[in-house]
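Holo prediction — zinc ion.
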Amino acid sequence: MYKALSPGAIGVQTPTIESSIAAAKLGGFAGVEISPSQIADRIDRDGAESVKRLFDEAGIKPAGFGLPTEFRSDDVCHGCQFPLAVDEPGIFCRWCLACG
Ligand SMILES: [Zn+2]
């Protein structure tokens, strides 16, 4: 177990992976919560090894991340009962719609 920074939870703006890592180092954390979209975009651009190297060289672990699902919502999918994401109109989640 290790301590990880959740920048958004304390109002710290980290618009890049590098700024997230720097904030974690500054605060003495061993990990930082990541933005899946930031990571995915960077992997598309520079490759997975490049992204892994950012964390390895800083000695910071990529920790948890948020999901696009609004788990606090009362709106659940009528197919699988999983909470619907905020951008999912209707009564079925995108996964149930995709599977038919
Ligand atoms: Zn579903």
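READOUT: The chain has a mean pLDDT of 88.
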